[in-house]
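Notes from the 1:1 (GR / supervisor)

We went over the backlog. Supervisor wanted to see one worked example end to end before approving the batch request, so GR pasted a single chain during the call. The sequence is below; no edits were made to it. Supervisor asked that the structure be written out right there so they could see what the output format looks like.
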Amino acid sequence: MVSPPHEAMHRIFQEYPGLFTGVSRALDLQFAPPSSVRVLPTDLTEVRPVERRVDTLLRFDSDRDGSFLLAVESQGKKDPDKPSSWAYYLSFLHAKYKIPVLLLVVCQDRATAEWAAQPVSLSPRQWPALLLRPLVAGPHNMPVITDPDAARADLPLATLSAITHAKDPEVDVILKALSTALQGVPEAVADPIIEFTAQGLGSNCRAAELWRNLVAVDLSFYTSYLAEEIRNEVREKVFAEAREKFSAEARVESRAEDVLLVLEARGIEVPAEIRERITGCDDPDLLRRWLTRAATAPSAEEIFTDVAEDG
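Structure output shown during the call:
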């Protein structure tokens, strides 16, 4: 049962909202007198379930430091709604587990990391009753690990270094150091590192392409599903480029043969030097113009007349 003192200590503010002005003055806080005050509903129960999920939640237990929760959030861009969500996560987790909570935000670009690191007060400026201070890991403070021995000494940190620096020029050296460090590492250890690096770099950046090439070459001895998938993709890309090049060369060769065929069909003699010039041309547009002229030119030499590229 709620006691009378409990009721009196808060209901007096409902009855006399202006009381807070006197209290704040007594506490030497500079709140301006309000122009209006409204009493709001006190029931904070969620009428409809609201789904809220932290990206990753870990519990750490230590004989020296006790226990605490680590909530890890990945943040790709600035979001003005995030601080209130993060504050909700921390408050809820603290209420549920009754142990300290720490928020770690991981970013890939410096601007987002610096934004996320800014302390955010969810209270009036006169008194920071609730101050959100995330711990942030990003390109501004994560180490640039370019030495294979250093990468081998802490493969997860080297992987995070590559992920957080994915958009930086240094990522090339980081990825090379990481691929070198993975050589000789048991496949069960290397496979998750390969996968997390590939996922962290994304699919639309130059770094991701470099990593796939490194896996295909430097780590070609691994037989895991992911490593083989990456190698197959690289092979397919090389084959596709080769097929495209071969197809283009075949089209050019065919067009050169068409020019000669038209001339020969019209009974026009084609000297060896002209035949060599036609078959040696690799410009499809130029060959198309020669083919058009071959239908009417009185001699093989005439197909080159009025062609700007030949002066």
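Supervisor's comment: Residues 225-265 form the longest helix (41 residues).
Batch request approved.
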